[in-house]
Design brief:
Helix content is 43%, strand content 20%. It is an alpha/beta fold and 317 residues long. The protein has 2 domains: 133 residues, 2-Layer Sandwich (Nucleotidyltransferase, domain 5); 156 residues, Nucleotidyltransferase, domain 5. Helix 3 packs across helix 10. The longest helix has 27 residues. The protein starts with a strand and ends in a 20-residue tail after the last helix. 49% of the residues are buried. Bound molecules: adenosine monophosphate and magnesium ion. Magnesium ion (MG) binds next to helix 3. The site of adenosine monophosphate (AMP) has 20 residues, from helix 4 and helix 5.
Length: 317
């Protein structure tokens, strides 16, 4: 079977084509701003404007012609309503036009499942660190469960907000990564509450230090602190579940220092670390296609009337 997946939970519009065995196509466009941040309605306008171009790129690869798809999958949630509606509407329209079934999938779970397709991970704990989402997820006791998560913003949004305070533009994560190279460590609040993490207080603290410390030191210390927090809860989830594999997912996992710290943690507990290539770490259509295809093969079916968006859809639902 061949599935076309549509991703549009936030600033990215992605189209992916997959079979049960591999990714055939995975293209995307992402909204960026010079001043930092994104306004949902403007983001949505941008994504709509990109649709014709993105589809024309898709057509160039013969395996991926729309007419050859057997199934359409789309991100049904969680995410920003403005963006989600674009993908859902498109999926419904294509399903009707091509007369093939459509299926809405959970974006967070899709990050976990694509990792299993493209790495040799079998039963991992997923440390999912993206713009809006930060969760430690695993399949345990017959369902996907959240073992720890952010109590306020996602770690990507935190990095973006800090970058905005430094006038670095959006997305800020990659800019902070560059800025952090060779930095000196300054003590920052370290906020782990049980299995959860929180970034709001650290952001305030960082902003207060902008006048008195170098951007280099702040970026470095910011990364060391929040990555350690994330890996602490991920490690505890691995200990709790007895799982020996850690899978990374989400845009923040593109960060080389984060991957290095994750590797050290896994090595210390004799576990394996898996990180898909960057194009499959960030939001993308291939993961939506693959997760949709797996669900379809397991028997999930959806009627058009059930394809409303679910902006608050929880991983454990
Ligand atoms: P996603 O929502 O999964 O597409 O991820 C987007 C988020 O990943 C944004 O908040 C980016 O700032 C962040 N991000 C992307 N690349 C990096 C990087 N190299 N280091 C840290 N954060 C990053
Ligand atoms: Mg994501």
């Amino acid at each position: 079977m061949k599935c076309l997946g549509i991703e549009s939970t936030a600033h990215t519009l992605g189209l992916g084509v997959v079979t049960e065995k591999k990714v055939l196509e995975n293209i995307k466009v992402s909204y960026t701003t010079k001043e930092g941040g994104m306004i949902p309605s403007k983001t949505a306008d941008f994504l709509v404007a990109q649709l014709p171009d993105l589809f024309s790129k898709l057509k160039k690869s013969p395996d991926c012609r729309l007419q050859t798809a057997d199934l359409i999958a789309f991100s049904q949630g969680p995410g920003m309503g403005h963006s989600l509606r674009i993908g859902a509407f498109l999926a419904r329209a294509l399903s009707l036009k091509l007369n093939i079934p459509l299926i809405g999938v959970n974006h967070c779970v899709a990050h976990l499942e694509i990792g299993k397709l493209v790495t040799s991970a079998k039963d991992p704990v997923l440390l999912y660190t993206s713009g809006a989402n930060t969760q430690v997820i695993a399949f345990e006791g017959g369902k996907y469960r959240i073992f720890g998560e952010t109590l306020d913003m996602g770690v990507g949004n935190f990095l973006d907000a800090f970058a905005r305070a430094l006038n670095l533009g959006f997305p800020g994560g990659p800019k902070i990564e560059k800025l952090a190279i060779g930095g000196k460590y300054i003590k920052l609040p370290y906020v782990v509450k049980g299995m959860d993490v929180s970034f709001g207080g650290i952001l305030t603290n960082l902003k207060q230090k902008i006048k008195t410390h170098s951007n280099n030191a702040l970026a470095f210390s910011c990364q060391e602190t929040v990555f350690a927090m994330l890996l602490e809860v991920a490690e505890r989830a691995m200990a709790h579940t007895g799982k020996q594999e850690l899978l990374l997912g989400g845009g923040v996992a593109c960060n080389k220092r984060f991957q290095e710290m994750a590797k050290i943690m896994c090595k210390e507990r004799k576990a394996k670390l898996f990180a898909p290539e960057n194009s499959l770490l960030v939001d993308n259509g291939a993961m939506i296609a693959y997760h949709g295809l797996m669900e379809y093969k397991k028997g999930k079916r959806m009627k058009l009337k059930d394809t409303f968006i679910r902006p608050d859809w929880r991983t454990d639902q």
